[in-house]
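Changelog-linked ticket: pyridoxal-5'-phosphate example.
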Amino acid sequence: MPHTLKDVLPATARLRDDGHLEVGGCDLVELATEHGTPMYVFCTETFRRQARRYREAFPAPDRVYFAAKAFTSVAAFRIAVEEGLGVDVASGGELYVALKAGVPPESIIVHGNNKSDAELEMAVASSVGRIAVDSLDELERLARIAEAAGVRQTIVLRVTPGVEAHTHEYIQTGQEDTKFGMSIESGAALEAAKRAADLPSVELVGAHAHIGSQIFGSEAFGKLVEIMFEFLSAVREAVGLSLTDLNLGGGLGIAYTKEEAPADVVAHGAFVRQSVAREAGRLGLAVPILSVEPGRSIVGNSMLTLYRVGVVKEIPGVRTYVSVDGGMSDNIRPMLYGARYSALLANKANEASDKVVTVAGSHCESGDVLLRDVALPSSVGRGDLLAILATGAYGYAMASNYNKMPRPPVVAVADGAARTVIRRETYEDLIRLDLV
Ligand SMILES: Cc1ncc(COP(=O)(O)O)c(C=O)c1O
């Protein structure tokens, strides 16, 4: 097992003497034999460690919400709660799963750019801790819904700070072309704050922004803090409200390949808190309670996907296709945004990766390519067990039944024991919604 993949693999990954990869004390070869492939292997220890790193980086009273969208599952939500995290949901469905998992409603924040009345009613009726109001339209509807329910709903305003960040770079965009939130620059966000202050059925306590995903550095967040403080200050002046909640969204990146080096979570937290203290001092505002909403950086490296290798097709002078028994239905990210991953053979993890191949899925699509030009052992062949690493975020969450592929199971591993937390779909499941 190449040592350089250490930061990409789950924290408990270990190379056994027989060349098998082990995660959570479980031999992946045995696991695949028992549960079949494809399957997601979920290292709960890695998830817990990341959650704890976040709690260390943002200690109470600051809040850490696990972004449900990255991996919406009862098991993940329960661990998040055990580790002192709340949950950020972005739809009625995610809220439903969070409530079913037993997430305390007060530690749930509800997002969405187009929340329906039904979703708002559900959120209010379940006494969620925060609703991130995304538009003036939503504010008015929520106020009516809360009033009808006899509730004063706590809200934060989702604002557009004009900072967009991806990986190493961030840009400040004068014009904010996004469907999310209300613009600070245009004054829409301040208008919403004024309006909220006049509505007795909502209690405006803070502001929220989310600037992007797979962000490696902390600088963009420093810029975000500056802009958000200008907004908090403007609200205090124009509305006379001291907002006590500052929610900086998610977005910290992870290593998908050995070349990627994301920021350390604890160092990132220290940087953000320093920026906050500095801006609070500069503008004479109280230090707010910070919230963050990490998804990828908690769950990403905690999972890998195991596939069985089938047909290996050498096209002389062109490339070698290694086909596996899953594909775009269990991981759409390579096709959706050209995401790159690392892979190894879990049954031959001690062999050198000396052959460049392309790993294709089994879907009826030429574009169903999981990994382009990846090095695997030259002995790769039918029956080998291919592990694609760091598939925890937006993997299962985005899985589909395209080509009527049953979705794979998620098997949690820890301390040598494996537990199926999401079972494999059956063919029968595939027709459960057909009314005939
Ligand atoms: C509002 C909000 N919070 C949190 C997240 C989680 O982001 P990430 O998984 O990059 O940490 C997202 C993702 O898009 C988001 O839109």
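Closing comment: Example verified and attached. DSSP finds twelve helices and 24 strands in the chain. The first strand starts at residue 14 and ends at 15.
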